[in-house]
Design a protein that fits this description.
The protein has about 120 residues and is mainly α. The protein has one domain (about 5-95). About 45% of the residues lie in helices and about 5% in strands. The protein contains six helices and two strands, in the order ααααααββ. It has a two-stranded antiparallel ribbon with strand order 1-2. Strand 1 (about 115) and strand 2 form a beta hairpin. The longest helix is centred in the first third of the chain and has 16 residues, at about 5-20. It is globular.
């Protein structure tokens, strides 16, 4: 990946993160999906493989995961089609298993100003 793409990834990540309350629902869902696929990075201040800042890296519409777990964000139409796949349904099953018995009041980074509540009860930092 070239320096130009890294700059674009950083820019879109910070821009989306700064305006997270205004993001469309399908983008918020993709952010949560990325965070779930990369739990280690979501629970850290940075990606353990590429060093990108977390959670900003999950908000970049152009970013591709260093391990190939996810690619650039897709349109609402493409996202809705993907949500019908067995792969996404398996993700939902895993997500449900992870949240059983857990509270949404987990620890937060200092300086977090709040979260976006999702219809499923999850929050984006």
């Amino acid at each position: 990946m070239g320096i130009k793409q890294k700059i674009i990834d950083i820019y879109t990540g910070y821009t989306n993160y700064a305006s997270k309350e205004k993001l469309p629902e399908f983008i918020k869902e993709q952010v949560l999906y990325r965070m779930k696929l990369c739990k280690d990075c979501a629970n850290s201040s940075h990606c353990t493989h590429c060093g990108c800042i977390s959670p900003v890296l999950f908000f970049s519409s152009t970013k591709t995961d260093a391990l190939g777990k996810w690619g650039p964000m897709v349109s609402e139409e493409e996202w809705n089609k993907y949500k019908e796949t067995d792969e996404y349904k398996e993700y939902l099953k895993i997500k449900e298993d992870d949240t059983i018995g857990q509270s949404d009041t987990g620890s937060r980074d200092e300086g977090d100003s709040g979260s976006i509540e999702q219809s499923e009860g999850n929050a984006i930092p």
